[in-house]
């Protein structure tokens, strides 16, 4: 039986995506979380950055992965590199060696450097291929995570990888305030767009589906 592995399955998107895949059929979700997902789906508890923990997946046929597990903005440089970069490399190497060819990864708009108040884009509009000008570590780690997918694609041209640069996700039924806050924020040129949890799940479902042409791409999920 083929499975779609979901890392970070105990988080907001991971829980909703696991439930959606389980209800809709087509592929069977396999949840992975350090804390345990407590979901009515097949699951393992462990750290995707540790090969010892990944060995728990040996008995499953994994055809795709939605990689949501990460440390987020405000983390230390060490944690950003250890989890978002080396952890992703570890996860992808294990899965590729076992025949998985489809990857969808949660990236961030910070990958171009937008998280810094000192960021100045090199061109307008800001292209998906804009170089990384991050100064704080988190955005650089997401940029390097995307580079990890390109590195593995160079080795394995049949791999399909999508790096989704997420918007700010709000729970269904709890939309953000309708009145805009005009107070200048710490980001000099832009802010995160808002996206409902349901729409985010639909995007991940769509990108995790089989595609005709393999490749690597970065896309804004908004």
TrEMBL record:
The keyword NADP applies. Residues 5-176 form the NAD-dependent epimerase/dehydratase domain. It holds the Pfam family Epimerase. Keywords: Carbohydrate metabolism, NADP. The keyword Acyltransferase does not apply. InterPro entries: Epimerase_deHydtase, NAD(P)-bd_dom_sf. This is NAD-dependent epimerase/dehydratase family protein.
């Amino acid at each position: 039986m083929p499975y779609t592995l979901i890392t970070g399955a105990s988080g907001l998107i991971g829980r909703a995506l696991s439930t959606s895949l389980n209800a809709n059929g087509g592929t069977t979700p396999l949840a992975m979380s350090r804390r345990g997902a407590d979901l009515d789906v097949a699951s393992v508890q462990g750290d995707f950055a540790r090969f010892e923990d990944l060995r728990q997946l040996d008995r499953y046929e994994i055809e795709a992965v939605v990689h949501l597990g990460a440390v987020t903005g405000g983390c230390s440089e060490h944690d950003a590199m250890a989890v978002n970069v080396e952890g992703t490399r570890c996860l992808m190497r294990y899965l590729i060696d076992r025949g998985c060819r489809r990857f969808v990864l949660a990236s961030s708009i910070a990958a171009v450097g937008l998280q810094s108040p000192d960021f100045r884009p090199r061109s307008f509009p800001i292209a998906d291929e804009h170089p990384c000008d991050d100064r704080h570590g988190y955005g650089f780690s997401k940029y390097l995570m995307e580079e990890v997918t390109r590195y593995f694609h160079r080795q394995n041209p049949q791999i399909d990888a999508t790096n989704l640069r997420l918007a700010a996700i709000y729970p269904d039924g709890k939309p953000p305030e309708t009145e805009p806050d005009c107070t200048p924020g710490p980001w000099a040129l832009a802010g995160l767009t808002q996206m409902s949890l349901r729409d985010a799940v639909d995007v991940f479902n769509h990108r995790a589906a089989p595609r005709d042409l393999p490749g690597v791409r970065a896309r804004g999920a908004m």
